[in-house]
Amino acid sequence: MSDTDALRHEIEREHKAIAKTLRRMEETEDPMALRPFLEELRPLLETHFEREEAADGLHAAIGETAPNLLPQVDELFQEHREIASDLERLCGHSERIARLATEVREGTLELIQRLRDHEAQENDIFGHAVYDVHGAGD
């Protein structure tokens, strides 16, 4: 197997792994459930982009057979940086959403407890008022 064939095989394998993650992301409607997929995608893309941009990557393979396509390869490499930046931005958003969701959940539990304590105090006060006013004379 030539180096170019081996590279093509590895790139195809990586494309399949990336596509599998993308399908799972696409099927996910809950933004909170996207976070693990975004995190899973990060190393897949890093490895994939590094392989394609390596000295023995796409530039070398395509330069041997179709050097006229090298400007398009350079555009793809630029897009790699843009995609990586978009992914980092989305990972940051998902981390903030997770923190906010945790704050909402913890705040909700605190509010529930506070309302229960409040109602218990009201019931206690009301019970004493009724008992003290009406119960003492019975």
Intertermini distance: 101 Å
Q: Beta-strand level of the residues, as a percent range?
A: under 5%
Helix content: over 70%
Shape estimate: rod-shaped
Main sheet specs: none
What's the alpha carbon Rg, rounded to whole Å? Answer: 30 Å
Q: Unreliable runs, pLDDT <50, ≥5 residues? A: none
Classify the oligomer. single chain
The succession of helices and strands, N to C, reads HHHH
Our count of helices gives 4
| Secondary structure category | mainly alpha
Mean pLDDT: 93
Q: How many runs of DSSP E, i.e. beta strands?
A: 0
Task: Compose a concise summary of this entry.
The chain is mostly helical and 138 residues long.
Question: What does this molecule look like?
Answer:
- The protein is an all-alpha fold and 138 residues long.
- The chain has four helices and no strands.
- α1 (3-26) runs antiparallel to α2 (31-53) and α2 (31-53) packs antiparallel against α4.
- 3% of the residues are buried.
- The mean pLDDT is 93.
Which helices and strands appear, and what pairs or packs with what?
Layout: H1 3-26, H2 31-53, H3 58-65, H4 70-135
Which descriptors would you attach to this protein?
0% strand; 4 helices; 138 residues; single chain; mainly alpha
